[in-house]
Amino acid sequence: MSQEEPDQCVYLVDDDEALRDSLVWLLESSGYKVCAYESAEAFLEVFDLEMSGCLVLDVRMPGMSGLELFEVLRERHCPLPVVFITGHGDVPMAVKAVKRGAMDYIEKPFGDRDIRGLIEDSLARDRQERERRLQEGETARRLSELTQREREVLDLIIAGKLNKQIADMLGISIKTVEVHRARVMEKMGANSLAELVQSVIAGDPAAMRM
User: Which CATH class is domain 9-134?
Assistant: First the structure.
């Protein structure tokens, strides 16, 4: 049985009706939620950035190809991990797509266990990426709640400055720096300097280039 979250879906785009129906049966019987489309254009009509799960995409299709759809989705910042279905002659194109960010590819004919394994890995990546985005959003929210002075102190902490150095640079007392530092730690939900640095990296990577 699959371990995907209730709202995760395997989006299948393939013009081969027999293969499409076979995969839908296999995946649904394995516990996955599946949404199947006969063309890239049909999938684009329903595409939404809030979709979660993964996309299983045939390389060659009439009209817009799977590779062309992949490029369109990249431009739209699609968060779905993509697995390509490919014939032997299209493997080089699939490899190129993987280098451009696709999750993986699988060559026809493939085994049930192989496709299920790829889909399980893709859904796991989707869960991890969604969790990362949630953490980034939470960190950004916390950063936005810092006062200007607290942000100045935070930036100097991240830059490796000691309390005395921060006090000298900002023209305030060491005691005041300690108060701001404590408030920053509390607002950021950090229990240590390491946690503080990690959270700032997640929400504002540019801060680490100071």
Answer: alpha beta
| 6 cis-preceded (ω within 30 degrees of 0) | no
As given in the structure block, the two tokens for residue 168 are 């000298």
Q: What ranges do the domains of the chain cover?
A: 9-134, 145-209
Q: Tell me the pLDDT tens digit for each residue of 58-103.
A: 999 999 999 999 999 999 999 999 999 998 788 888 898 999 999 9
How far apart CA 140 and CA 138 sit, in angstroms, is: 5
Question: Phi-psi bin for 148: left (phi > 0), alpha (psi -120 to 50), beta?
Answer: alpha
Q: Which two tokens stand for residue 57?
A: 């995409």
Q: Encode 70-98: b = buried (16+ Cβ within 10 Å), e = exposed.
A: beebeeeebebbbbbbbeeebeebbeebe
Residue 56 vs residues 23, 46, 165, 180: alpha-carbon distances, Å: 10, 15, 54, 50
φ, ψ for residue 159 (rounded to 5)? -75, 0
pLDDT digits (tens, 9 = 90+) for 131-157: 888 888 888 889 999 999 999 999 999
Fold of 145-209: Arc Repressor Mutant, subunit A (1.10.10)
